[in-house]
Design a protein that fits this description.
- It contains 15 helices and 15 strands.
- It is of the alpha/beta class and 383 residues long.
- The chain folds into two domains: 195 residues, 3-Layer(aba) Sandwich (Rossmann fold); 175 residues, Glycogen Phosphorylase B (Rossmann fold).
- The strands form three sheets. Strands 5-3-1-6-7-8-9 form a seven-stranded parallel sheet. The chain has a six-stranded parallel sheet with strand order 12-11-10-13-14-15, sandwiched between helices.
- The two termini are 17 Å apart.
Length: 383
C-alpha cells in the first residue's frame, strides 16, 4: 500500500501521538508498505520505504498552529495519490482518523465539571476552534473510518457525535517489549533505589506525567497520607514535570516531605520502572495512557481509573486495580494498601507482565492494516 500518515510532530523521542506515529510508520515500512509522513518536524530514521513531506505551520500561537496545520496539510495531500490517508492529528483530508487524544468535547466537559469557571473554559477561542474542527471530522468530513485505542473512547465518539459503531475500529496501543520487560528493568533496580534513597523493605509508588494535575498527583499524595501507619514504608516517585511546587508544599504540610520524591524527565523511563514496585495514575481522563501499558509490560502492578482506556488492559490482564473516580482518595488508598503485601504484589506483577507482553507493535500495525483494507474496499465500492 501507499500510505500517508499525518502528524504535526513525528518523533521517536516523545510519547503520545508523536511516538505512536513514529512506531507505526516503522512497523508498516518493515511490513513492506510505502509510507509518506506529512509533518512539520520529525526525527528521520533511515528506514527503507519512509518518505517525508514538510507541512508549514505557524508555531508562535496555539490558535494559529491549530488552524494552519490542517489547512496546509490538506493542500499538500491533494497533490499525492494514496491508497489510504491516515490522520493522527486533526486534519480534514483523510480516510482514517485515529483518536489518539480522545474526544476533545468530553475532555472539555471534564475540565468544566471541575473548574470554578466552566463558562470561561467552554468559551475560550482555542477550545471553540478545536471543537469546530473536531465536529467537521466526525460529522462532515471525508473520513470513512475512525480508529480508537479503547472502548472508553469508542463510547465517547458514539455519545457526543453519534458515529455508528460499524465505522469505529478498536486497535489497542502497542508497547516495545524489548525495552519494557521485567528483565530489563531489574537491571536498574538496585542502582536507582540507592540513588533515590529507597530501602529494600520500602514500597516505591511511581507515577509519570507532564501534566500532574490532570493525572492525579494530588490524589496520590492525599492517599499516602490517608494510609497512616500502614503507609509508613511507602514512598512516592513522581517524574515528568517541573511544575510541582504546589504538590511539594502539599506533601510537606501532610508530613510526607521525605517520602515524596518529585523529579522532571531525566530520560530512560525504564530506569524508573526498575526502581518502582507499583505504578499509579488516577487520571481525570486519558483515552489510553501508554505509560500504564509500559508499566504492565515491565512487571509493575498498575492502579488507575475507569476514565483511562488503559484500565481495560489492567482489568483484562489482572495486572492491577481500577478505581471509579480520580479524586476518590479512600478507594485509591485501599488499592495502594493492598499492594503493600509483597506476595500479593508479586502475583499481580507476574500477571501484568504476562498479559501486557502480547501488546506488541507488530500486532498493532497488522490491526491498523486491516482497517486500511476495509477503507480501500469501501472506496472501491463507493468512491
Amino acid at each position: 500500500m501507499k500510505i500517508a500518515l499525518v502528524i504535526k510532530d513525528f518523533s521517536g523521542r516523545r510519547g503520545g501521538g508523536e511516538g505512536y506515529a513514529f512506531r507505526l510508520a516503522l512497523e508498516l515500512a518493515r511490513l513492506g508498505h510505502e509510507i509518506h509522513v506529512y509533518a512539520n518536524s520529525w526525527d528521520k530514521p533511515e528506514e527503507e520505504g519512509l518518505f517525508y513531506h514538510r507541512v508549514p505551520m505557524v508555531r508562535r500561537s496555539s490558535m494559529l498552529k491549530l488552524i494552519s496545520f490542517p489547512r496546509n496539510a490538506g493542500r499538500l495531500l491533494k497533490e499525492g495519490r494514496f491508497d489510504v490517508i491516515n490522520g493522527l492529528t486533526q486534519v480534514l483530508e483523510q480516510d482514517v482518523f485515529r483518536l489518539g487524544g480522545g474526544v476533545a468535547k468530553h475532555w472539555l466537559d471534564v475540565r468544566a465539571r471541575f473548574s470554578p469557571f466552566p463558562f470561561l473554559i467552554r468559551m475560550r477561542p482555542l477550545n471553540l476552534i478545536n471543537l469546530f474542527i473536531e465536529r467537521r471530522i466526525f460529522t462532515g468530513g471525508r473520513c470513512r473510518r475512525f480508529i480508537v485505542n479503547s472502548k472508553l473512547c469508542r463510547g465517547h465518539l458514539k455519545k457526543y457525535y453519534g458515529v455508528p459503531g460499524d465505522r469505529i475500529d478498536l486497535v489497542y496501543n502497542g508497547v516495545d517489549t524489548e525495552r519494557f520487560n521485567p528483565e530489563v528493568v531489574r537491571r536498574h533496580r538496585a542502582e536507582m533505589r540507592a540513588a533515590l534513597g529507597v530501602k529494600d523493605d520500602e514500597m516505591l509508588v511511581l507515577t509519570a506525567s507532564s501534566n500532574p494535575k490532570r493525572k492525579g498527583l494530588g490524589s496520590i499524595i492525599a492517599a499516602l497520607a490517608a494510609l497512616g501507619e500502614a503507609g509508613r514504608k511507602v514512598k512516592l516517585l513522581a517524574v515528568g514535570s517541573n511544575r510541582v511546587s504546589s504538590f511539594r508544599r502539599r506533601a510537606a504540610s501532610l508530613g510526607l516531605g521525605e517520602r515524596v520524591i518529585l523529579k522532571g524527565w531525566s530520560g530512560g523511563i525504564e530506569r524508573c520502572y526498575g526502581a518502582a514496585d507499583i505504578f499509579v495514575l488516577p487520571t481525570m481522563y486519558d483515552p489510553f495512557a501508554n505509560v500504564c501499558l509500559e508499566a504492565l509490560a515491565s512487571g509493575l502492578p498498575v492502579i488507575t481509573t475507569w476514565e483511562n482506556g488503559a484500565a481495560e488492559v489492567v482489568e483484562s490482564t489482572g495486572g492491577g486495580a481500577v478505581i471509579g473516580d480520580h479524586d476518590d482518595v479512600t478507594a485509591l488508598a485501599a488499592a495502594i494498601k493492598a499492594m503493600t503485601d509483597r506476595d500479593a504484589r508479586e502475583a499481580v506483577a507476574e500477571r501484568a507482565a504476562s498479559g501486557a507482553g502480547s501488546f506488541t507493535w507488530d500486532r498493532t500495525a497488522r490491526a491498523v492494516l486491516e482497517v486500511y483494507e476495509k477503507v480501500i474496499e469501501e472506496k472501491r465500492v463507493a468512491p
